[in-house]
Design brief:
The protein has 148 residues and is of the alpha+beta class. It is 24% helix and 36% strand. It has 3 helices and 8 strands, in the order ββαββααββββ.
Length: 148
């Protein structure tokens, strides 16, 4: 059997500073489109101020996640990254977003999920989140399905 590879992009637009965007259904649709029955899917965000996580999509829990992130990496702390005037020749967009980069580093920028019988092997209460820590912006998520 030959291993197949299918790659597709999900385009998103965040509307708030920190936004948990549930992309589970979109990822499952890409898996189905790939016709891969057994294998794995990589969900990757090619942005330094985003993350990917798998957890329960429950509004109060998401508020808890955000509270923990703000506590671990406060927006009003001093971040060397934010000293744009010291970075000669920087191609900065002018955002003071050192906190966003730090949150992304803590969360990670990818998840790998097994596929069995053409379905994501996640529990009923699990969702795949693309998390923007520096919204509001247009963002991409790369989904790569590999298997047979």
């Amino acid at each position: 059997m030959e291993i197949k590879l299918h790659k597709q992009k999900i385009e998103l637009e965040s509307t708030t500073q920190i936004e948990f965007m549930d992309i589970t259904e979109k990822v499952q649709e890409i898996v189905e489109k790939s016709k891969i029955r057994q294998g794995q899917v990589l969900v990757y965000v090619p942005h330094t101020t985003m993350g990917v996580a798998i957890n329960h999509n429950e509004p109060m829990l998401i508020q808890d996640f955000m509270r923990v992130l703000y506590k671990l990496v406060p927006m009003d702390d001093r971040y060397s990254h934010d000293l744009f005037e010291l970075k000669k020749g920087s191609k900065s967009d002018g955002r003071s977003n050192g906190h966003s980069h730090c949150k992304s580093l803590l969360m990670g920028n990818s998840e790998v999920i097994p596929i069995e019988k053409g379905k994501l092997m996640i529990a009923d209460l699990q969702s795949i989140f693309a998390i923007d820590f520096d919204g509001s912006r247009k963002r991409d998520v790369i989904v790569q399905v590999m298997g047979i």
